[in-house]
Amino acid sequence: MSYLDYKVTQTPTGLRKILYISWPLVFLLTAVASTGFLMLYSVAGGRLETWAEPQMIRFAIGMVIMFALAFVPIWFWRTISIPAYLICVLLLVAVDVVGQIGMGAQRWLQIGPVRLQPSELTKISLVLLLAAYYDWLPLEKVSRPLWVLIPVVLILLPVGLVLGQPDLGTALMLIMGGGLVMMAAGVSLWYFGAVSGMVGGAIYAVMISRGTDWQLLREYQFRRIDTFLDPGADPLGAGYNIIQSQIALGSGGWSGRGFMQGTQSRLNFLPEKHTDFIFTVLAEEFGFIGAMSLLLLYCLILGFCIHSALTNRDRFASLLTMGIACTFFIYFAINMATVMGMLPAKGSPLPLVSYGGTQLMILLLGFGIVQSAHVHRPR
Amino acid sequence: MRKSPKEIFESSRSISRRGLLIGAIQASVVGVLGFRLRTMQLEHEEEYRLLSDGNSIKIRLLPPARGLLLDRNGLVIAGNEQNYRVTLTREEAGDVSTVLGRLRQIIPMTDAETAAIIAEINRRSAITPVSIADRLSWDEFASIAINAPALPGVVPESGLSRSYPRRGDFAHVIGYVGPVSDYDLSKIENPDPVLRLPEFQLGKVGVEAKLEELLRGKAGARRVEVNSAGREMRELSRQEGQQGATVQLTLDAALQNFATQRLGTESAAAVVMDVTNGDIVAISSSPVFDPNMFVRGISGPQYRELMNHDHRPLADKTVQGVYPPGSTFKMVSLLAGLESGIINPGTRFYCPGYLQVAGRRFHCWSRGGHGSVDAVQSLERSCDVYYYELAQRVGIDRMAEMARKLGIGVRHDLPMSAVAEGIAPDREWKRRRYDQEWQVGDSINASIGQGYVLASPLQLAVMTARVATGKAVEPRLVKAINSVAQPVVDFPDLGIHPLNLRAARLGMDAVMNSSHGTARRSRIVAPEWRMAGKTGTSQVRNITAAERARGVIRNEQLPWNRRDHALFVAYAPYDNPRYAISCVVEHGGGGSAVAAPIARDILLFALSGGVPPLSAYPDGERGAAEERFKNMNLAPAVVAQTGRARA
C-alpha cells in the first residue's frame, strides 16, 4: 500500500497529531523509567548525581525524540527502510574493520562525542525492512520457499556481522526479533517447527562433541555452560554473579526489605547492579509485589503495542509495531530470565530501567515509530 | 500498487491470527517468569533469606603476592615490600570531613591532599573503600589502629606492594605495575575478581604487563563473619592464595647497571646479546626513570616533567625506537650482493667520492673518494660508493630479503611493550605504503641504511649476532620460570655461504683493527677479546643543495635534535663470538666517535665480568677509561638472594 492509499484527509495533520498519540503508552513508559530512576537512586546509596540524574536527562532527551518521531508520517519509515538497513550493515562492517585494526573486540564506533553501537540500531532497522518486505509481498506468496529464503538472508547478513564482533547475545536477539516478524507476517508455522528441531539437534551435537577431537565450542564456552547448569561449582568465579543475584532476588519475599534496605546490593555483593542486575535490586527491596508490578507494566506496554498493531489496517504499520513490541519483549524477557538463573549469564540491560544511554535511546526511537504508526493509522 | 479492500482484509485477518499467537507465546513466557519469581520469592524465601543473612559470613579475597622477577644470577629486580595503608569507606564514616580531620592529627596531610581525597571518595560509590594514605610508618599505623573507635570507616590494612630495588636500571624492560583502571578491566574477558580489590595492581607496561597472567598468582580466600555495618568480627577459615610465578630473566643486573650508567644522560640505547643462546644480557634505554614512582602514584608535575623531556625518558628506545641504521646496514647489503652471485669478495668498484645516477649525484662520506675498493675494504673504510654500485646491480628485493633473514623488518617475540617491526623496504612495500614505484635512488639510499630502512637497536643486535654465528639466533628474555629452565633452542643455520660470511666478518674486523679502520680508536687490544664491529652515522635531515654549496655544516653547529644519530654494532671475541652489542646514541654525532667507545666499554664489562681491565684498551685510551669508571656510581654488588617474597 503506497502513501496514496492513506486517506490523508482523515489522518491528523500538524500539531493536532499530538491528540492522536497513544497517551497511555507515554504514561507507561514514564512509569517504567521512573522505577528505574528510583532503583538507580537506591543503588547509588541515596545519591541522585551518580546514576539517576544522568539517566533522567537521557530519558528526557529520548522522550523528546519519541514525540518528534511520532509526528513523522508512517510512510516515511517505509521509504527509508532499505537505506536504513544498508547503512546499518555498512556500520556493522565498519565496526568489524575498526575492531580488527584496533585489536580486540569492539562493539561501537566513536563518531565525535557520540558512541554509536550499530548492532543496537540494527535491531530496529531489521524490523523496518522486514515489515516493508512483507507489506510489499503479496499475501499468497508469503510461505513459498523462495520468498521465505529472502528474509532469512536479510536477517542472517547482520547476524553474521554481529557474530564477528563477537556478540553472540545480540546475534540471537536479531534472529528472534526477525523470526517473530516473519511469524507475524504469516509465514507457515512448519518452517518454525523445522528450525526449532534443527536448533535442538545442533545443541545436542555441540554438547556431545565436548572432549572429542571435533569439539564445536572452545573450552571456555563449555565452562560457561557448566557454570549456568551448576553455578555452585565455581562460587567465586563465574558462578558468583548468578548465585548472588538469585540470593538477592529470593530473599525479597512478598514485600521486600524496603526501599534502600537491600543488604545484598548495599553490601556490594551484587555485581553491575546498576546495569544488568538492577532487576534483582528491585526484587530484593520491593519483593514479589514490586517485581510483579514491573512485569505488569511491561505487559501493559506490550499489550498496548499489540492492540495498536492488530487494529491498524495498514499492513506495514501493523507489522512494524508488532516487530518493535517483540524486540522490547525479547529485551526484558532475556534480562529477567538471566538474573533468575534461567539463561546463561550474559550482559544484557533491563529495558528502560538499567543505567545506560544506548538501549534507552534505541527503545524510545522504536516507540517513537510505534507512535507514528498509531497516529497515522488509516481511519 | 494499490491493495484491494479484500487484500487488506485478508492481511488484517492473517496478522490478527498471528498477533494473537505471538501474544500467547509472550504471555506464556511472562507466565514462566512470574512463576519463577513466585517460586523463588514466596516458596523459597526462607532459604534465600538465610543465604542472604549468611552473607554476613563473607568471603574475602586475599590478594596473592606477585611473582618475583630475578636477574640471571638470582638478584631481585622486582620484588614485594610490606606496605601499611589506611582506607576509608564513605558509608561507614558518615561525616567524611570530621573523620578526616581526626585522621590528620595522626598522619600529616596537606589541605590539597585532603581535598583530593574527598573528591575521590565522592567519586566512588559509598561502599567502596578508598585509599587515604600509603606507606605509613609502623607508629602511624599502630596509632590509627588504637584510635579505631574514633575513626569510623577507617580501616588500617597491611599489604604487599611492588618495589623495584634496582630503580631506573630496568625501568624500560620490566615496566611497572599500577592501579587497575576501568579501561584495564574492559579489555579483559572475564576479569579475575581479585582485580576489583582496592589497591590491587597489575602490570602496565613491559615484562610486568606481558607476563601479567604468570606473575599475578591465584587469590586466596578467607571466610569472615561481619556485623551489619560490614565490620569484621572474626575470621572463620583461611585458604592461602598462590604466589605468582618467579620469573628469572636472562638479564645481568650488574651489566645492565653498568650499561645504563655508561649511556648516562644521552638519549641512547644499548642491547647486549649472548650469541650462543640468544639471551639478552643487557637492554638499556636512557635516560631512565624510577618505576617506583608509578607504583606509589606519580604526581602531576613529575609526570609532566617526564613527558616533556626532549630525551623522552619514558620511551623504550631499545625495542620501540626505530632508526635509520646507516652504515651498520652495510653488512646486509654486502651479504645480499655476495649471496646473489653478482659480485664476489674480490670484486672491485672505483670510488671517486661520488656516483652520478639518473642525473643525481650521490656522495660518499669521503669527499676525495676511496679509489678502488673490494668487499672487505668497503666495510673497513665504510665506502658509500661501493654500495651505490652494488645496489644498482643487486636490487632492493634481494637486500630486503637479506635484511629480514638477518632479523631487520621482523618482529622479535620478546615479552616487552610495543616491540617494533622496523622496515626492510622493497618494491611491494613502497607500492603498498606510498602507492609509488620503487626508484633506483631508493635502492641507493637503502644500501647505506638511509631512506626507508628503519631498525631498532634490538634488531641491530640480532643482525650482528647472526652475522657473527651464521645462525638464526633469536633473542630471548625469560631464562627460567619457577626455577624450571626454559629450553635453549638450537638455532638453525641461516644458509649463507661461509665464505661470504667470512668476508663480512673480515670487514668488521678491519673496521676495528686495521690501520684504515673507521673505528680503530675504539679497538680492544686484549687478543682474547678481539672485537669486530661496524660504525654508522645516520642523517635525520636532508642536506639541501644550497647547504652543500655553502659547505656541509658541522654537526656540532646544529641544534641537538637535528644532529646525526650515532650507531655502532659489534661482537667479540672475534674468533669465538660470545656477545653481540648494538648501541644507538640519538643525535650523538658520529658512530665511531660517540657510539663505539660506549659499546666497547659495555662489551668489555660483559666479557670480563666486571669493570673492564685497563690493559684491554689501547695505550692512549687508558687514562680516559680509568677516569670514566671512577666517576661512575655503580650499584654495589648485592649478594644473590633466593627468590622468596615476604608474604
Description:
By secondary structure, chain A is mainly alpha-helical. Chain A has one domain (3-375). Chain A has 15 helices and two strands. Chain A has a two-stranded antiparallel sheet with strand order 1-2. The model of chain A has no long low-confidence stretch (mean pLDDT 84). With 647 residues, chain B is an alpha+beta fold. Helix content of chain B is 38%, strand content 18%. In chain B, helix 11 runs antiparallel to helix 23 (591-608) and helix 16 (384-394) packs across helix 19. At the A-B interface, helix 8, helix 11, helix 12, helix 13 and helix 14 of A face helix 1 and helix 2 of B.
Radius of gyration of chain A: 22 Å
Rg value of chain B = 33 Å
Shape of chain B: globular
H-E order of chain A: HHHHHEEHHHHHHHHHH
Kindly identify the CATH topology of the largest domain in chain B: Beta-lactamase
Most extensive contact: A-B, 61 and 52 residues
Structural class per helix/strand content of chain B?
A: alpha+beta
* Beta content of chain A: under 5%
Fraction of residues in helix of chain B: 25-40%
- The domain count of chain B comes to 2
Total count of helical runs of at least 4 residues of chain B: 24
CATH class category label of the largest domain in chain B = Alpha Beta
CATH homologous superfamily caption of the largest domain in chain B = DD-peptidase/beta-lactamase superfamily
Distance between the termini of chain A: 15 Å
- Largest pleated sheet of chain A: 2 strands, antiparallel
Largest sheet geometry of chain B: 7 strands, mixed
Total domain units of chain A: 1
CATH architecture classification name of the largest domain in chain B: 3-Layer(aba) Sandwich
Share of β-strand residues of chain B: 15-25%
Q: How many runs of DSSP E, i.e. beta strands of chain B?
A: 21
